[in-house]
Amino acid sequence: MDDNLIELRKPVPKDGMDLFELVKRCPPLDTNSSYCNLLQCDHFSDTGVAATQGDQLVGFVSGYLKPSDCQVWFVWQVAVGEEARGCGLAKRMLRSVLKRAEFNQVRYLETSITPDNEASWGLFTSMARELQAPIEKTVLFDEQQHFKGRHKTEYLVRIGPFNSVSE
Ligand SMILES: CC(C)(COP(=O)(O)OP(=O)(O)OC[C@H]1O[C@@H](n2cnc3c(N)ncnc32)[C@H](O)[C@@H]1OP(=O)(O)O)[C@@H](O)C(=O)NCCC(=O)NCCS
Predict the structure, then answer these.
(1) In ligand 1, which atom is closest to the CA atom of 79?
(2) Which of 51, 64, 94, 130 is 20 to 30 Å from the Cα of 19, by its Cα?
(3) Over the stretch 19-71, which tens digit does the pLDDT of each residue have?
(4) What is the dotted CATH code of the domain comprising 3-159?
(5) Residue extents of the structural domains in the chain
(6) How far is C-alpha 53 from the geometric centre of its chain's CA atoms?
(7) Could you count the other beta carbons within 10 Å of the beta carbon of residue 163?
(8) To test the ligand 1 pocket, which listed residue (78, 91, 109, 123) has its Cβ within 8 A of the most ligand atoms?
(9) Does the structure show a pLDDT above 70 at 86?
(10) Which residues line ligand 1 (CB under 6 A)?
């Protein structure tokens, strides 16, 4: 897929169901309810990004500014359709959000990753390198303690502090 033909923009509510379908075809991501995806595209539009080619949604980053600390952008999910992988789209989407004027005060990127998600570790390790920032890993939600054994441990990955990202 030609990366130059992929446009990035803030999500709109009409993207909600396409996001639901995109996440479904991006294992190991957990699917959310379509209602949750609609909220991500509406209330959290300023802190997320949609990547489209023509009328097709090929990538998405959902996230929010942490309610207890507005210096932290918490990335909820990154999804890139198989057809668009390997051309730098995930990193381009993350960068595009960090460049927004309203992100001037953001100094940390946080996300959570399960131990077996190599692509995700690869993506965020690479992002930390690009931001020239330290990366720390701690347990966020434990398999037994929080998930009652039904989900692998989610590690909190914290990148930062980094300088504001410019155009
Ligand atoms: C993870 C995912 C978002 C990567 O998308 P992508 O557009 O192909 O990623 P990029 O091309 O921007 O690659 C970014 C970095 O991640 C690394 N990476 C990407 N896929 C990788 C993989 N399968 N294994 C190891 N590293 C990987 C790349 O090497 C690159 O690092 P570099 O620039 O230093 O070489 C995509 O594979 C995906 O949607 N997977 C399923 C959902 C998922 O696991 N999401 C995880 C985040 S919540």
Answers:
(1) 39
(2) 130
(3) 999 999 999 999 999 999 999 999 999 999 999 999 999 999 999 999 999 99
(4) 3.40.630.30
(5) 3-159
(6) 19
(7) 10
(8) 123
(9) yes
(10) 26, 28-29, 77-80, 85-91, 117-120, 122-123, 126
